[in-house]
Amino acid sequence: MIAAKRKKISKARLVLIASLVLPGSFTQDFSVKAATLPSAITAAGAGASSVFETEGLSLNGRTFVPLRTVSEHLGAKVLWNAPERMTEVRYGGTLIAFSVNSNRVRMGNRSVSLDTAPRIVDNRLYVPIKPFVRQFGGTLAWNAKTQQTIYTLGGRTVRVNFAPRIYAPKITDSRIQALTQAADRIADPSEYTQVRREFRPYFTDRYLNKVIRSGGTGGSKEPFTGKAELIEYDGQPVIRQGGFQDDAGGLFVDRMLRLVYENGKWVIEEVSFRSWMP
Predict the structure, then answer these.
(1) Average pLDDT, the chain
(2) Domains of the chain (ranges, CATH numbers)
(3) 10 Å Cβ neighbour count for 228?
(4) Could you tell me if 236 and 262 are in contact, meaning their C-beta atoms sit under 8 angstroms apart?
(5) Is 101 left (phi over 0), alpha (psi -120 to 50) or beta?
(6) Short-list 266, 240, 253, CA closest to 174
(7) pTM (predicted TM-score)
């Protein structure tokens, strides 16, 4: 299970990441690889002062690359705000600020919602690149022939290589059982005085914040007794479990637990419900 304590991240180990959708989807065991990620960037070719290459990471159908060194090569400054667990990136007179496990990003004076939240993997912080392009400009491209993502800003270029296959631990039956039981219990968080402490091993911080704000998962509060089944939905692992729920007027309810591999464990990123008459 995920350790409840937060990891202290040193400024030297922070990296920024770029996010693009690449062709393909998860392998059969929804595998991702968070290790073997190089921390250094090497110069490429004769234009060593303007072109760099690094290795990328694929996670949950998205492509990520380490970007602290990349940002600094492109002329951006990276600052870590430890009390708020926030990374600030400044380029010229513009600013982007990312918070750990939050899909809200500050771009100048605006707060923007992203479809991919920053996250910590192997003590490194990863963030999507789309806000960089929108806020700082430059060009982003995918070279299908070389299998590279290419980002150019201010006359400097970063080329990102991606491994053809990535791996992660299989989602075991015992983990599926633990996650479904946690989803049953968190449906009514009012029973717990320390919601984050109780459920951090099973949910992302972003989703726990959502549950605390809304007072629950927004669906049936009765335990689900149907068979839990692991499926793939939009390239992401999902635990689907159904049952006739009395508090849903006797309708059949499907509960979908969307999973992500975070900090060495599979956890629930989102819970959704669908009621229907069989």
Answers:
(1) 75
(2) 11-161 (3.30.457.10), 173-276 (3.10.450)
(3) 18
(4) no
(5) left
(6) 266
(7) 0.46
Residue 176 near residue 169, CB atoms below 8 Å: no
Please write the tens of the pLDDT for every residue from 185-240. 999 899 899 999 999 999 999 999 999 999 989 888 889 988 999 987 766 789 99
Rounded to an integer, the average pLDDT of 162-178 is 76
- pLDDT at position 256 is 93
- Say if residue 23's pLDDT is above 90: no
**∠ CA 101-256-168, rounded to 5°:** 55
**Measured between alpha carbons, how far is residue 258 from residues 85, 153, 236 in Å?**
25, 35, 7
In a 13 Å sphere around the CA of 198, the CA atoms on its Cβ side amount to 17
Task: Specify whether the CB–CB gap between 239 and 269 falls below 8 A.
Answer: no
The first and second tokens of residue 4, run together, are 């409840």
Contact assessment for residue 14 and residue 124, using Cβ atoms and an 8 Å cutoff = yes
Does pLDDT of 108 surpass 80? yes
Instruction: State which of 59-73, 82-96, 202-216 shows the largest mean pLDDT.
Output: 202-216
CA 3 – CA 265 distance, rounded (Å): 9
Alpha-carbon span 234 to 232, nearest angstrom = 7
Reported as a pLDDT band with limits 50, 70 and 90, residue 179 is: very high
3-state secondary structure of 183: helix
Say how far apart CA 94 and CA 229 lie, in whole Å: 46
- Rounded-to-integer distance, Cα 177 and Cα 151, Å: 42
Residues 6 or more apart in contact with residue 147 via CB below 8 angstroms? 161, 162, 164
Read off the tokens for 85.
């667990």
Round to whole Å and give the CA distance between 14 and 77: 12
CA dihedral 173, 36, 261, 122 (to 10 degrees): 120
